[in-house]
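Lecture 7 notes: from sequence to structure.
We start with the chain below.
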Amino acid sequence: MRIDLHTHSLFSDGTDRPSELVNKAMSQGITTLALTDHDTIAGWDEAIEWLRPGLDLVLGSEISCQTEDGISVHMLGLLFDPKNQPLQEMMAQTRDNRMGRMERIIGRMNGAGIEITIEEVHAQLSEGATLGRPHLADALVAKGLAKSRDEVFADWLANSSPFYVAHYSPTPEVAIATIKAAGGVAVIAHPLASLRGRVVSIDSFDSYIAAGLDGIEVKHRDQTPDQQQLLFDIAAGSDLAMTGSSDYHGTGKMNELGEFTTDPEEWAKLESRAEARRVIRL
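Predicted structure tokens for the same chain:
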């Protein structure tokens, strides 16, 4: 079994349609695939439509969170009820705030002589997609101001950049509680990926576990072997599920589909914590 519990489509900052993602997963021998676009479930219906026997589909979302001292955290919500109103409202508020944030980032860049418009950024979005910094990066590349997303993030859009603007997000504890109340399971994504910016302290896991955290994304390309071992020890000590995932974005990042996977025993532990059996299979 090959289980990849963290991927993105063009309904957030990936480059594949959900249909393409499903087809790639099947062609590459993935047996369980989670679609986890940022703060949206807009790609779910298309993924279900293209599902074929041999692939189990896990539907979810990667929820943008922020600690009280401003550290960005991403929380994977899996197997939740898509009709749950509080969760939908939380994701909608985060999406709405992204527009104002993008306008402020663009204003700062314009002030520094970098000519880009919000219309050029919107041209990079598919209908229903969640707006994010990768779309700004794509607009800058399309305009010939940079060669790649990676170059844009390194030079202009990193968290330490003068152009960076924070945005509304629930705290990790609120996100966990909301995911759990919607019947799903909560897995903290790449929590020690320090190349992305500041990361949470080890002590903060006590608060997340108290809020109902179900799992930790241990195996991820942005975490060193030492960091993975540390997360392994935390998960083992608290009986949390340990996942491995690609965080696949199509051509938007170097991550390869299925490059890290979750052990079947860990997936069974995680799925058993959901309120209902919501894996989609034919």
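Points to note: Residues 85-111 form the longest helix (27 residues). Residues 150 and 253 are 8 Å apart (CA to CA).
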